[in-house]
Design a protein that fits this description.
binds nicotinamide-adenine-dinucleotide, alpha/beta, 390 residues, nine-stranded mixed beta sheet, Dihydrodipicolinate Reductase, domain 2
């Protein structure tokens, strides 16, 4: 008998809506799931957003006071999908109330806030799942299986990037992502966090690094409260300064001797959603690009026959994790949204089993420790060790 877990969601913007419809998809995509989510109550400080999400996705109730979500007796687990400056207060309150937590990355505005959230969740012993959804792509999971099987040999290089031009138009609105007090850092929190998580997942922990950053567009049009997303353009109107970085580049060394380079930019031209990486070993190579989410390039060294060496393009298949839950046909396409359905399934499964979740808050803390070293490197202008946040 499938258990129903009461769900509350706080912050009904892009991610809040996506978490909600993902919960509704679990029973359809994962009929054997031990638990499904029952949408109880959603909150947004804009009444229109809370009400419309409740109507669209079937929440029993909506509210403009997020604390009512945590006080609701039928809510066992919460999605926190608000801007970064609200993560700490909301996650601490949710953990104290004994709620299991599906929290969006980067988990706070700063490494110190991520550490405080991790302490609260680990002390309360609740399940956590962090929105590093690119780990959930079937071919990325399969890539990890190839790495673990040893077929790449000794790992040597990792290069990863997240390049997305959402801010490339100087009239792209100055949403919370561009504000230090609301987002914390710029691309380090928003986009590089995904690259670092992929690097950790596939190649292991980063040990030391050197970084540089830049802000290419200094001011933007102020946003209209409660309107639009960070992809919205506003012509005319007052402008205000951008407070955090548009670009970051990082030279990295991993604990296992892998060397590499990570990069992220939000004002780049020509790149719509270039999250991609290459992982090299002494015996093989893997390459993945989100724009072709269901493809994995795989090179394996042959027995001294260079003329026959080359990349094979592996298409997603029903033999890869989760794929058959979405389509029976090898090579057919899955979507970004499907990765969130897999997250919802994994969150509910871990919550039902009383497990910590995967990736859980400690994965976010590991990413935050890398961010911390990046910020120190900007100050010192030199290499910095990745170390625990105290
Ligand atoms: N995993 C991913 O791929 C991914 C993608 C986008 C965003 N995110 C993360 O998700 C989070 C939200 O990002 P988004 O793009 O959905 O933002 P968004 O601006 O679209 O939505 C945020 C929502 O929170 C609401 N909100 C603000 N203050 C509130 C309060 N006090 N109480 C209740 N609601 C409140 C806003 O009105 C808005 O509806 C961020 O932390 C971001 O980093 C993750």
């Amino acid at each position: 008998m499938q258990r129903q877990i009461g769900i509350g969601t706080i912050g009904m913007g892009w991610m809040g809506e996506l978490h909600s419809r993902s919960q509704n998809q679990v029973a359809i995509r994962f009929p054997d799931a031990p638990a499904t989510g029952r949408l109880v109550i959603c909150a947004d400080n804009f009444e229109r957003r809370a009400r419309s999400s409740a109507e669209k996705y079937g929440y029993q109730q909506w509210t403009t006071d997020w604390r009512e979500v945590l006080e609701h007796p039928e809510v066992e687990a919460v999605s926190i999908t608000t801007p970064n400056f609200l993560h700490l207060e909301m996650a601490e309150a949710a953990a104290a109330a004994g709620k299991h937590i599906w929290l969006e990355k980067p988990c706070g505005r700063s490494p110190a806030e991520t550490k405080a959230i991790a302490d609260a969740i680990n002390t309360a012993g609740v399940t956590s799942h962090i929105g590093f959804n690119y780990r959930m792509c079937p071919v990325v999971k399969f890539a990890k299986q190839i790495v673990d099987s040893g077929r790449l040999g000794r790992l040597t290089h990792f290069r990863g990037r997240f390049l997305e031009g959402y801010g490339s138009n100087p009239d792209a609105m100055l949403t919370w992502r561009f504000s230090r007090s609301m987002a914390g850092s710029g691309v380090v929190a928003d986009m590089l966090s995904h690259v670092v998580d992929q690097a950790h997942f596939l190649a292991g922990p980063i040990k030391r690094l050197a970084s540089q950053q830049n802000t290419f567009i200094g001011d933007r049009p102020e946003p209209i409260p409660g309107e639009g997303t960070h992809f919205s353009i506003r012509k005319g109107g007052p402008r205000a300064p951008v407070e955090n970085e548009d670009y970051v580049g990082v030279l990295v060394e991993f604990a296992n001797g892998v060397f590499g380079h990570l990069e992220s930019c939000r004002v780049i031209q020509g790149e719509k959603i270039n999250l991609s990486w290459e992982l090299h070993g002494t015996n093989g190579v893997l390459k993945w690009y989100l724009g072709r989410m269901g493809e994995l390039e795989f090179f394996e060294l042959s027995e001294g026959d260079n003329a026959r060496d080359g990349y094979v393009n592996l298409l997603a298949s029903v033999e890869m994790p989760y794929f058959a839950n979405f389509t029976p046909g090898d090579g057919l396409s899955m979507s970004y949204d499907d990765t969130k359905v897999i997250e919802a399934y994994e969150f509910l499964r871990a919550t039902d089993a009383g497990e910590p979740g995967e990736p859980n808050i400690n994965a976010a803390l590991a990413v935050a420790e890398v961010s911390d070293a990046i910020f120190r490197s900007w100050e010192s202008n030199s290499f910095e060790d990745v170390r625990p946040i105290t």
